[in-house]
Amino acid sequence: MTTPKDTYHPLVDDFYKTLDESTPAPKPKNPVMEGYQSALGGKNILLVDDNTNFREFMEYMLETVGCNVIPKTDGKQALDYMLSEDSKKINAIVTDNNMPNMEGIDFLSNMIRDKYGGLENYIRSPMFTILHSGNEIDDCQFETAFGKPNAQVPNLVTLMKPYSNDTLYKTLADGINSKMY
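Predicted structure:
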């Protein structure tokens, strides 16, 4: 009598190979994730959020597609970092809006003024930013901070929480790659 292992069948043979400790199981291929890994792998992301659980989850999600994540807990820490020499390696910023010490919109407004010398220089820079919030950020708030409505700042996108992982990855990949020269 033959056993399944004694009979050759490509699927069964491959299955038994994965049971062998010396042969690791092949990871299933996900073309969508591979596309995001290709677009975002090696990119340096400044992640700013005061909620520890959400920040750690976002850090994990970004690292899943190969991003290098620099986490900060509020806008003040993020601004200090962005005004330092270390910030030269940052490709994008993902920041919450509602935080203690300094809100995200204030962090971005101060960074654009102090680092870039104004909004027009920021718009021409390779930096891409996602400002996310559980509350809607209206055009009045945006115009007060930046002097223009949201739609007129192409490299600063607002997202309402909750949003899907796919939305985050696609927004980052599109934004970073559109800003590369």
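Summary: The domain at 31-179 is CATH 3.40.50.2300 (Rossmann fold).
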